[in-house]
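Session log. Operator J.P. requested a structure for one protein chain; no other inputs attached. Running the standard single-chain path with token output.
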Amino acid sequence: MPAPDSFVDTNVLLYAISTEPAEAAKTAKARNLLTTKNWAWSSQVAAEFVNASTAARRPVPLSLAEAEQWIDTWLVFPLVSVEGQTVKDALRIAQRFQISYFDAQILAAARAVPCSQALQPFGGGTSETTGIGAFC
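Structure written below.
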């Protein structure tokens, strides 16, 4: 598999599995991104996906077994472990750019792979690609 050109955020994965009619456009965009890009993700993104997708507050929460099936499907893509250096890098990013620690940790993990853009939802919840040249 070629080197990743993108790094996905948890919400891209959540939109990709959505069955909510109100999210149909977001779901289509997320599925397109996941099937047309060579992407990477992190253990934080995987954990957030399991937590959010199985939460009782979701209209139709996944079972842990269903969440695991999705994780297994996506493990063909590079998964970045959150290690000590990632934590330290995230602290510096959070301080420098005045963003939340967890957002910074996603960006720090993205730096660990040769990627050109991070994929996360912005602007009204639509999935858009946002360059992270300042972080890569």
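Operator note: Residues 84 and 90 are 10 Å apart (CA to CA).
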